[in-house]
Amino acid sequence: MTQFCDDRDLLCLEPSLFERLGRPGQHLAGGSDGQLSLTSFGSESCDFQAAQLQPGMVLCITGVSPALCLDIVTVDSAHELTVSLLRGDPAGAPLPPPAPPNPDNLAFHVVSFAAQIQAVSHSLSERLRHAAEVAGVTAADFADSTQLRLAVAHGVLGTVFVARAEDASPADAHWAKAQHYRDEYRRLAPQLRLAVDADGDGQAEQTRTLGHINLRRV
Fold it and tell me: Which of 52, 66, 84, 132 could cross-link with 94 by S-S, CB 3.0 to 4.6 Å?
């Protein structure tokens, strides 16, 4: 299923999001024998390939203070990852994190919000598809863009913080974050644009936004 953003996009907005284990994130991997050397992270006890880790997921090293959350750039083998500090350009060269005082026997885990990303991506994809039909555009897929990734990331964080605040008091900060991200998603989604090339010359003559489409529940 299409994913319009990655875990790393959530990390950009919420730096401490991945430090916590438990719902609604999925705990994919972890251990206490991590070894960090520049942009290389290894663990003999954890099989990263069997855990189905993917680039764009987030490795959280809790064996240092404060915890260190890193973008997984590549899964190089069953027991080795290439990791990086967050980069402005995800395609850029990996950036080595600060070396911990003791780079061996580090506690770590990988938590992913892939299920929430897929749910929000699917919902938005259906809205885009409907908008394309109304605009006379035939589209099976939608191109990646910064605006699309940002909108989905806000929608995902809204659902994540609602889940985290479910049993909390109305004054809990998670409710405030949930409301903020849900409001931002509602603001950003209608601004997404579909380009319409009416005469097939490769130039967009029209653009349509979700804000111009009347949606109805079926």
Answer: 84
Outline where 88-217 has alpha helix (H). 114-135, 146-164, 173-188
Whether 71 is in a domain gets the answer: yes
191 backbone dihedrals φ, ψ, rounded to 5°? -85, -10
Cα torsion 63, 175, 158, 185: sign = negative
Q: Which helix (H) or strand (E) holds 35?
A: strand 26-37
Q: If 0-12 CB within 10 Å is exposed, 13-18 middle and 19+ buried, where does residue 51 land?
A: middle
Place of tokens 């064996």: 63
- Are 49 and 75 found together in one domain? yes
The reported pTM is: 0.86
Phi, psi dihedrals of residue 149, rounded to the nearest 5°? -65, -40
Q: Do 120 and 91 fall into the same domain?
A: no
Instruction: Give the count of beta carbons closer than 10 Å to the beta carbon of residue 217.
Output: 3
The DSSP symbol for 9 reads H
Using DSSP, state whether 41 is helix, strand or coil: strand
Which residue range is the domain that position 31 belongs to? 26-112
CA angle, residues 53, 59, 63, in degrees to nearest 5: 135
| Residue in the structure block whose two tokens are 């259906």 | 126
Type of residue at 165:
A
Per-residue pLDDT of 49-100, as tens digits, reads 999 999 999 999 998 989 999 999 999 999 999 999 999 898 999 999 999 9
- The alpha carbons of the chain give a radius of gyration, in whole angstroms, of 20
